[in-house]
């Protein structure tokens, strides 16, 4: 991109989806300190020399400003979900209908099951709920390196109120979202995750169900601003159980209203239409034009 600018006077806009090299360092895939220092210098040079930068969260913008990138060069543009592909079918198949009964309050986690998600906390929370909130049913849908461990541990703990479902295409997720009473987001404690907004957050807001947000920082602030759910501490099963209890004590109408607020907030602030318009403004501003 910078070569094209040198040759043809092109403008360079960098869309920052991960903060490097921190994201590489936290993944434990590159532990060479010298290589990380070199990567840091390359990234800082790129950020500072770009004409504009877009960042997917306010925390990302703060991190870039700390690297001496002028604040006015950075525009926060949230990721959006693939709205067209999210299934709208709400008729429950027999296998899914069996999980949802009038007496059950279903908490759905949908997505990757890896070290970053720290889903052992959900199993520990389920153990608490078996005694204090026996009507709560956890459904974990997806796959990942931690899935075998989680299924084995759930079996060893003799958890009766947790089910594992295989990954399914987004266009077939409608019945799962419709079945759920609440949707949960969880990441383990890490400074980088405080400025990260997990992509499932946008999906959960769009489908309009109450969210249990167990991630500190920007993701937590987003749910609070949208009035779209309840928040709890990550890696704290007792606090998670308290958050679930808050939702179970609400009426169905109150939970529906909470989900509707999340959907409305998404459409006004995070939708593809909003995001594309913001990108257009950024591109045009590089040339001195206006939309």
Q: Give the distance, in angstroms, between the N- and C-terminal Cα atoms.
A: 24 Å
The helix tally amounts to: 13
Gross morphology is globular
* Strand residue percentage: 5-15%
| Low-confidence runs of at least 5 consecutive residues | none
Order of helices and strands: HEHHEHEHEHEHEHEHEHEHHH
Strand order of the largest sheet: 6-5-4-7-8-9
The main pleated sheet reads as: 6 strands, parallel
Mean pLDDT: 91
Helix and strand composition category: alpha/beta
**Number of β-strand runs:** 9
Radius of gyration (CA) equals 21 Å
Helicity level, as a percent range?
Answer: 40-55%
Topology:
Blueprint (H helix, E strand, L loop, with lengths): L1 H7 L4 E4 L5 H5 L6 H17 L2 E4 L2 H9 L7 E3 L17 H4 L7 E6 L9 H13 L3 E6 L5 H10 L5 E4 L8 H6 L2 E5 L12 H9 L3 E4 L3 H9 L2 E3 L5 H12 L3 H18 L2 H15 L5
Parallel strand pairs: 1-2, 2-3, 4-5, 4-7, 5-6, 7-8, 8-9
Helix pairs in contact: 6-11, 9-12
Question: What does this protein look like?
Answer:
With 291 residues, the chain is α/β, with parallel strands linked by helices. Helices cover 46% and strands 13% of the residues. It contains 13 helices and 9 strands. The strands form 2 sheets. It has a 6-stranded parallel beta sheet with strand order 6-5-4-7-8-9, with helices on both faces. A 3-stranded parallel beta sheet has the order 1-2-3, with helices on both faces. Helix 9 (199-207) links the parallel strand 7 and strand 8. The longest helix is centred in the last third of the chain and has 18 residues, at 252-269. The mean pLDDT is 91.
């Amino acid at each position: 991109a910078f070569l094209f600018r040198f040759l043809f006077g092109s403008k360079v806009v960098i869309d920052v989806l991960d903060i490097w090299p921190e994201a590489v360092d936290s993944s434990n895939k590159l532990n060479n300190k010298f290589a990380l220092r070199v990567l840091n210098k390359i990234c800082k040079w790129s950020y500072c020399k770009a004409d504009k930068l877009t960042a997917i969260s306010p925390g990302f913008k703060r991190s870039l400003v700390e690297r001496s990138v002028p604040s006015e060069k950075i525009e926060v543009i949230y990721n959006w979900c693939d709205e067209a592909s999210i299934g709208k079918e709400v008729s429950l198949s027999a296998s899914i209908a069996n999980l949802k009964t009038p007496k059950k309050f279903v908490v759905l986690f949908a997505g990757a099951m890896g070290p970053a998600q720290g889903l052992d906390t959900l199993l520990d929370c389920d153990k608490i709920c078996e005694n204090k909130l026996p009507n709560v049913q956890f459904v974990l849908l997806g796959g990942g390196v931690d899935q075998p461990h989680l299924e084995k541990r759930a079996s060893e703990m003799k958890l009766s109120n947790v089910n594992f479902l295989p990954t399914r295409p987004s266009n077939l997720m409608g019945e799962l979202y419709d079945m759920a009473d609440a949707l949960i987001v969880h990441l383990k404690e890490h400074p980088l995750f405080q400025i990260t907004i997990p992509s499932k957050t946008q999906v959960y807001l769009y489908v309009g169900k109450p969210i249990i947000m167990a991630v500190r920082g920007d993701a937590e602030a987003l749910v609070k601003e949208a009035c779209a759910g309840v928040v709890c501490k990550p890696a704290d099963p007792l606090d998670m159980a308290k958050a679930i209890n808050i939702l179970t004590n609400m009426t169905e109408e109150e939970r529906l209203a909470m989900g509707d607020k999340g959907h409305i907030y998404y459409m006004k602030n995070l939708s593809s239409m909003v995001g594309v318009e913001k990108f257009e403004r950024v591109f045009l501003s590089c040339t001195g034009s206006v939309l």
